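Quick one - first record:
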Amino acid sequence: MLKYIQNSFLFLVLILVVSCAEDPTPKPNAYLRLSYPEANYNEVNLDVPFTFQKNEFATQVGVKKMGGLDNYGVNIEYSNLKGTIFLTYKSIHKDSTSLVEFMRDAQNFTQKHTIIADEIVEQVYLNDERKVYGMFYEIGGNAASQSQFYVTDSVNHFLTGSLYFYAKPNYDSILPAAKYLEKDIKQIMESVTWK
C-alpha cells in the first residue's frame, strides 16, 4: 500500500511540474472568413419587358411566364451561396387600382416578416431619368428573406424582388452572403430599364 501511495504522490508531483511550466494564455476568438469575388455586372436582356444588370457570380438565370398577360418570374441563382434572388414582374393595367394593389401587396409581404425580424430598414429609390421609383427593404434577424424591393414606372411596369437562401434562417450564419447579395439587389434596382 505504501508503494501505491508513493507512486501516486510521484505522479501528482510530475503533473504539477509539467503543468506549471508556462502560464496559460487564452486563444483568440476565431471568426469565419468568407471571401467572395468582386462583383462584375453585365446587362441581362431576356424576353421580358425590362432589362437589368446581374453579377457574373450568379450561376443561372431562369424565366417563367406566369398567369396574366405580361407577368413573369425571373430567378437569379447563386448556387455557391445556396441562395436565389426571385424577381416578379407584373404589367400595370390601365385602371389605377392595380398599381395601388401591387404596392400594397409588396409592402404587406415585407411586413409579414415583422413577427420574426429584429428590424426592417426602408430605403426609398428614385430615378426620374429612367422613370424607376421604388423601395428597398433590409430585414434584420432570422427572417426567411433578408432583402426585398419593388420598383415601378407608376404607369406600365411593376417589379418586385426578394432574396432567399436554401437554409433555415440563421442571421449570423448567412449575414456575409446576405450582405454580398444585397449589393446585387441594389444593382438590379439601379439598372432596371423598361422596354
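second record:
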Amino acid sequence: MGHWLERNVIEPGKLPLLLALTAFVLTFLVTRAITRLIRAGKGPFGNVRAGGLHIHHVVPGVVLTLVGGFGTVASFHNGVGAAVCAVLFGTGAGLVLDEFALILHLDDVYWSEAGRKSVEAVVLTAALVGLVLAGFAPFGVNDLSAQELQNRGTALSSIGTNFLVSLVALSKGKYRTAVFGAIVPPVALIGAIRLARPDSPWARRLYRHRPRARARASLRAYRHDLRWTRLRNAVQDWIAGRPDPAPSHRDLPGSSRRDLPGPK
C-alpha cells in the first residue's frame, strides 16, 4: 500500500488532491451530523445568526474555497502550502455543496425533498474526484519499468473506451450510471445498451418517430424509478437525514375546509 501510494499519488503530485477529497468528505459528514443535532434540539450547537440574519454555512464555504483555490494558483505548487490550501479548498467545497440545493433553488430547501439534490451533488463530486485520484497518471512518475508502462497504457486505453461508453449513457439521461460507470465499466456498458430515458437528448432525437420505443422507454423509466427511488432515498436519509414531509393543503396558512375542492 505504501509503495502504491508513493508511486501513484505522492510522486505524480496527487497528494493535495487526496487531502482535498478527504477534507471534502469529512466536512460534509461532520456538517450533516451537526445540522441533524440542531434539527433535533440536541447538543451545544445552534444556527449562526448576525443581526437577526441566519448565516448559512455556504457563506464560510465560499470564503474557504476562494482562499484555498487562489492560494494554490497564486504561489503554492507543492509542500506544506499546497497541502494547507488543498484542505481549505476541500473543506470549503464540502460546505458549499452541502447546500447546493439552496443555491439551485435560491430558497431554504435544506430539509425538504428538493434538498436531496445536495446529497446527490456531494456523492457525484466525490466519485468523480475519486476516479481522478485512483486513475493511473501517465506522466510525473520517474523510472517506469517496461511492465509499468504497459500496465499504464492498457489502463489508459480502457479508461478512454469506458469514457466514450459513459458519454453514451449520459446522452441517454442516465447520469448516475454514467458517473459510477466511469469507475465500474460494466455499469456504464449496461447504461449505454439499454433504452434511453424518455426525457433524454438521445430519446428526443432518435425516438422522435418511434412511438413504440418512446412508450417502452417511458414504461421502463417508471418501473426503474418505482424500484430504486425508495432505496436511494433510504440511503440518503441514513447519510444526511430524512427531509420534512411536504405540507398538505390543510396545513397551509389561510386554508380551511371551505378552500378545499369539491361540492359546496
